[in-house]
């Protein structure tokens, strides 16, 4: 099994290289087509035409597009994504400072979506053929129709403004000092023993994670319910009943084991979209992650940050895809026989 997984990882990594090259080239070329002059934006408003032209030459913007891309790609291979036009900092440090916050948000939100999705899918399957099925089906479709930013506003107004139960801005309340070890606030607070900081950070993540998780869970519910219905049409379910197994054991040992595979694939796809779709939620909750950084970059036409963030999202999606494929291979013995 480990050899099969290793082969899969090698194939996926080799496939990821041309994908990254194509994505990086598209990002670079599309951003250069925009009517934005990075040289002029990197200088004060009162800069002369001569100073702007000198900066264009220094940045290599006077060269052909393919040469510019070659220079940028060479810098990228050496770990230099570029320097922010607006923040006057290295893009690597800016992304490194905000990426852990988005990863934490996406991971916990995916955990919330998984719990709600699996529990809701099992309940939808349990009430099949009853009057409650139509009600639950209507509720799941209603939940599926509401995007995450509406859930964000709804939860913020109810639990943050009206009842004032949970905080809804930033990552920490005033007075709490942020420990810096790995960049992941929850991990760093535990490593340094700051339990109060850990729970305060967790409180700040409840509302945005709930908003993202609730928005994703209905599709998991419906896919799991459909997969269980398909699995219960197979002969092995009837044979398990003939052997006298209880319905609970049939569901857990046979039905759920096979129905979880399509759900796992959907979770991988959703997690990829979730990682890149936290932007609006981060803005609503003033959460200092990649989403807020991207908004600032777009507002200020900061091309180096936009390029770096786009490439980071691409790498994250590829990594998630590799992890999901590996889990799929572990859970499905038939694939290991190929």
Total helical segments: 15
CATH hierarchy: architecture of the domain at 99-297? Orthogonal Bundle
Q: Give me the Rg, rounded.
A: 24 Å
Overall residue-averaged pLDDT value = 82
Tell me what portion of residues adopts beta-strand conformation: under 5%
Order of helices and strands: HHHHHHHHHHHHHHH
Low-confidence runs of at least 5 consecutive residues: none
CATH topology label of the domain at 99-297: MetI-like fold
Helical percentage: over 70%
Largest β sheet strand count, sense and barrel closure: none
Distance between the termini: 11 Å
DSSP strand tally? 0
Description:
Keywords: Cell membrane, Membrane, Transmembrane, Transmembrane helix, Transport. Pfam families: BPD_transp_1 (PF00528), BPD_transp_1_N (PF19300). By secondary structure, the protein is mainly α. Helices cover 76% and strands 0% of the residues. It is built from 15 helices and no strands. The chain has helices spanning 2-33, 38-41, 49-59, 65-77, 91-126, 131-145, 148-162, 185-191, 195-231, 235-242, 247-276, 279-284, 290-299, 303-331, 333-336. Helix 1 (2-33) runs antiparallel to helix 14 (303-331), helix 5 (91-126) packs parallel to helix 14 (303-331) and helix 9 (195-231) crosses helix 11. The protein is globular. 28% of the residues are buried.
Protein topology:
Blueprint: H1 2-33, H2 38-41, H3 49-59, H4 65-77, H5 91-126, H6 131-145, H7 148-162, H8 185-191, H9 195-231, H10 235-242, H11 247-276, H12 279-284, H13 290-299, H14 303-331, H15 333-336
Helix pairs in contact: 1-14, 5-9, 5-11, 5-14, 6-9, 7-9, 8-9, 9-11, 10-11, 11-14, 13-14
């Amino acid at each position: 099994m480990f050899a099969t997984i290793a082969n899969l990882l090698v194939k996926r990594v080799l496939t990821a290289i041309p994908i990254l090259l194509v994505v990086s080239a598209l990002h670079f070329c599309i951003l250069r087509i925009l009517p934005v002059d990075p040289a002029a934006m990197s200088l004060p408003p009162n800069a002369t035409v001569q100073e702007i032209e000198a900066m264009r030459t220094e940045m290599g913007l006077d060269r052909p597009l393919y040469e510019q891309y070659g220079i940028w790609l060479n810098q990228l291979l050496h770990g230099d994504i570029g320097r922010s036009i607006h923040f006057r900092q290295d893009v690597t440090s800016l992304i490194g400072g905000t990426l852990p916050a988005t990863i934490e948000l996406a991971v916990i939100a995916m955990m919330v979506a998984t719990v709600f999705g699996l529990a809701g899918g099992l309940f939808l399957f349990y009430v099949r053929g009853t009057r409650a099925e139509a009600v639950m089906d209507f509720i799941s479709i209603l939940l599926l129709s509401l995007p995450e930013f509406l859930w964000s506003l709804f939860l913020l107004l109810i639990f943050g403004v009206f009842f004032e139960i949970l905080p809804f801005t930033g990552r920490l309340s005033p007075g709490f000092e942020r420990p810096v070890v790995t960049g992941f606030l929850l991990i760093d607070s535990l490593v340094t023993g700051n339990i109060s900081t850990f729970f305060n950070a967790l409180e700040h993540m409840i509302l945005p994670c709930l908003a993202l998780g609730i928005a994703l869970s209905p599709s998991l519910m419906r896919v799991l319910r459909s997969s269980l219905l398909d699995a219960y049409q197979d002969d092995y379910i009837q044979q398990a009943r003939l052997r006298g197994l209880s319905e609970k054991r049939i569901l857990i040992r046979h039905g759920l084991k096979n129905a979880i595979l399509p759900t796992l694939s959907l979770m991988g796809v959703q997690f990829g979209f979730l990682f890149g779709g936290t932007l609006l939620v981060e803005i609503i909750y003033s959460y200092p992650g990649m989403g807020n950084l991207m908004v600032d970059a777009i507002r200020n036409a900061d091309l180096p940050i936009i390029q770096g963030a786009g490439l980071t999202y691409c790498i994250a999606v590829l990594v998630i895809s590799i992890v999901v494929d590996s889990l799929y291979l572990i859970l499905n013995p038939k694939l290991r026989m190929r």
